[in-house]
Design a protein that fits this description.
Elements: H1 4-10, H2 15-22, H3 26-35, H4 44-57, H5 75-81, H6 83-91, H7 98-104, H8 125-140, E1 143-147, H9 154-167, E2 172-175, H10 194-205, H11 215-231, E3 235-240, H12 248-258, E4 261-262, E5 265-266, E6 269-274, H13 276-281, H14 290-293, E7 297-300, H15 308-318, H16 323-326, H17 331-339, E8 340-344, E9 349-353, H18 357-374, H19 381-386
Amino acid sequence: MLALKPALQRAGISQAHLARELNLSAALVAQLLNHEKWPTSPDKTTLKGRITEVLADHDIAVDAALFEPAPAVDAAAAKNLLTLEVHDMLLRKQTLSPQAKKHFGLFRDPFQDDLNDAEDVFSSPSIRYVREYLWTTAKLGGFMAVVGESGAGKSTLRKDLEDRINREDAPIILIQPYVLGMEDNDIKGKTLKSAAIADAIIRTVAPNEKPFSSMEAKSRQLHRILKDSRRAGFAHCLVIEEAHALSVPTLKHLKRFLELEDGFKKLLSIVLIGQTELKTKLNERSPEVREVVQRCELVELDPLDAHVDEYLRFKLRRVGSDLDAVFDKDAMDGIRARLIFAKASKTNRETISLMYPLMVNNLVTAALNQAAQLGFAKVSGDLIREA
């Protein structure tokens, strides 16, 4: 660790602030302060001059000792000093720099959202299970909720379902109400009402018909349209994204849509896709939604914990590269160390994993950018721990 680091701490200047002042990445500054690793660009002399200017602006006396190793400090205390910067980095969108692309021979960013077909979608055992569950529900009927953290791949699975229906020319009609501005109350935004869902179904299944105005007439119209379409050989699947923002009354009304039948045949299956707040709303202890909970199968997307190496190998192979050419063997341990942590309370201790595709993408991209700036041939576990 550079002696500069404790000097900054005493002055109340964070690593993130210094990075902004120097117009450098926080990851690069972390490597410099914590491991005394100077980047290749800007060169050491230039960077020392820029740091000196920043320190002068903050009335910090500068001498050559600041750029030398500091006396040893307690490891736990040093780790705590990085906590704020670490969590700030995990949440920030990262873009692979041109320098990193050139350094690692990547002609395009392996982690950008450029999916074109099902072959571009990574499948862990959890993802394969949810994928097939979605297909079965859309094809044969049912009521399910797919829940996952932000960046877990929920929207990708929805796109995959739509692509599979088109690819296999399956007689399934997907109904997807627009959820722009949807909130669970009318103070923050606009709630998605049952009438709007009915309109979406009518306009999708029978685009030449105009929905009636009254809810009674609209309901009869909806039932008739679904019956006619079902008898023509079509299945119907209502898919609502951002379902964590559905109001409780609308969640309750979904049971009535589910109960639309033609004899013994169900006319509509329902898929809800949302973040973990949806799981909280679909709590079996809540009397308001108990009838929905009893009929809705909740499926959670698991993190990539044991499959992160397969995921990264898949992403790199798509752009003509190889995992072993870019990452050291200990890099996967570094990713797990950054994205899996223990949370303790007075009553229990739980392990929390943030190993979802978006988080992994951002962390690894930051590490690749940093490795290129430092001139490292591969991304190591230590580098990822500081990325």
